[in-house]
Amino acid sequence: MTEYLITPEPEVVLPIVGMEQVFPVRRVFCVGRNYAAHAREMGDDPSRDLPFFFCKDRTCVQWLKPNQDNSLAYPDATERFEYEVELVVALTRGGRHLSLLEADDSVFGYSLGLDMTRRDLQSQAKQKGRPWEAGKAFEGSAPMTSIVPRHGAALLNQGSIELSVNGVVKQSSDLSHLTWDIAEVVMKLSEQFELHPGDLIMTGTPENVGPVVVGDRIQARLEGVAELELVVV
Question: What is the uppermost EC class here (predicted)?
Fold first, then answer.
């Protein structure tokens, strides 16, 4: 029997809608600027850019319980805490250099998530050519809903995605506006990383990202998948 020097952290899991089994989270990959309008608002030309990727630690994942009061702690070391609503895909197959068909087959289901960002820290890192972890990979920075299985259906290629703060719509788009669709994202990611069952991919956010403060209520929805609601505390 293995003896540990310190107590291992508990496994990070997400419930699966309609199933008793849970989804064990392995890694969290994020796609940067995968909607053209968001790329432009961040100063990029989307016609030239291949998808690029960064990571969050799995301990960043916070499950949002349905029909309950969920809260999100305002993090330390920032004065600009911003929301980014995203479709999340969950993989139950992996591999390297996947074809589009293999990438399609790897996707088990979907979640609705927020890529919460300490934008001031991210901006400072970008200006100095430093890594983004301080701006992106902090505790609670990836709140997500339960996973909805696709049950053999075709991958989502359309459906409205929206985020509101205190009842005012801030982000509103459609999955059809993704620069790189789900299968393409998985395929391109597999060219840089060996993917594994349990990996999550946050597929990018629409335009009009912005800040929240303590007391703000965030609501988001992804057509046919999930809704979420939380309060910044």
Answer: hydrolase
